[in-house]
Amino acid sequence: MYKFILSSTDENNWLKGHSREVCFIGRSNVGKSTLINALTNQSQLARTSNTPGRTQLINFFQDINKKTLVDLPGYGYAKMPKNVKMKMIVMIEEYFLRRKELIQTFVLIDSKVGPTIDDKLMIDSLKEINREFIVVLTKSDKVKQSELHKTEKSLKKITNDYIIVSSKKGTNIQKLKKIINSFF
Fold first, then answer.
1. What mean pLDDT, rounded, does the chain reach?
2. SS3 assignment, position 87
3. E strand intervals along 87-181
4. Could you give phi then psi for residue 51, rounded to 5 degrees?
5. Dihedrals φ, ψ of 136, to 5°?
6. Which of 55, 70, 101, 177 has its CA 20 to 30 A from that of 43?
7. Domain total for the chain?
8. How far apart are the first and last CA of the chain?
9. Could you list the residue range(s) of the whole structural domain that residue 95 is in?
10. Is residue 95 packed enough to be buried (19+ CB in 10 Å), middle (13-18) or exposed (0-12)?
């Protein structure tokens, strides 16, 4: 059972006292919080919203064994005040550059939308700083097989390391749990 530990804005108030964590990042409204809830079998652990841009802090969740999941703010939401957007960009950059406990990043991409320019920039940034990542195609229950194949084709130009999930239907959630647990 996971529980919410704290929200953070910068290195001074990051979670301390554990050794490893994995994080989730993606565009606003891609389903990060919903996926965390599905992975932990806890519908109310991470706050979900139909309004993009709600997660504006780094949120740490931990189980009794100190396995830590981190929900990062979404990127690419245009209707956010510029100063708030800049704070979040700096917060995310600092996290990726300085977080020693981070062992794996899961980049979430909407199956229907496919990789956006923002997603490609995030992946390129992670590659540039040598951060390990796996792409998670979310919301696969909302697309036709033909659309999903099209998304996979464009994704394979960027990476071959991905998994397709549906939090709503539970598709590949157990498989993703096993992947996550392999890092602890």
1. 91
2. helix
3. 102-110, 133-138, 162-164
4. -95, 120
5. -120, 115
6. 101
7. 1
8. 15
9. 3-181
10. buried
Model confidence, pTM: 0.93
- Please tell me the distance from the alpha carbon of residue 159 to that of residue 124, in angstroms, as a whole number: 11
Please return the burial class of 51, using the count of CB atoms within 10 Å of its CB with bins 0-12, 13-18 and 19+.
exposed
Q: Across the beta sheet with 21-26, what order do the strands follow?
A: 3-8, 58-62, 68-71, 21-26, 102-110, 133-138, 162-164
Q: What is the pLDDT of residues 71-128, one digit of tens each?
A: 998 887 656 678 877 888 889 999 999 999 999 999 999 999 999 999 999 999 999 9
Selection from 142, 83, 89 nearest residue 114 by Cα: 142
Q: Contact 184/104 with Cβ under 8 angstroms?
A: no
Higher-confidence residue of 50 and 27: namely 27
Lookup: tokens for 174: 């157990």
Q: What is the C-alpha separation between 84 and 42, in angstroms, rounded?
A: 29
Q: Which value, in Å, is the radius of gyration of the alpha carbons in the chain?
A: 15
- What is the CATH classification number for the domain harbouring 27? 3.40.50.300
For residues 22-38, give the mean pLDDT: 94
94: Cβ–Cβ under 8 A, 6 or more apart, which residues?
10, 11
Residue 50, Cβ density class (10 Å: 0-12 exposed, 13-18 middle, ≥19 buried)? exposed
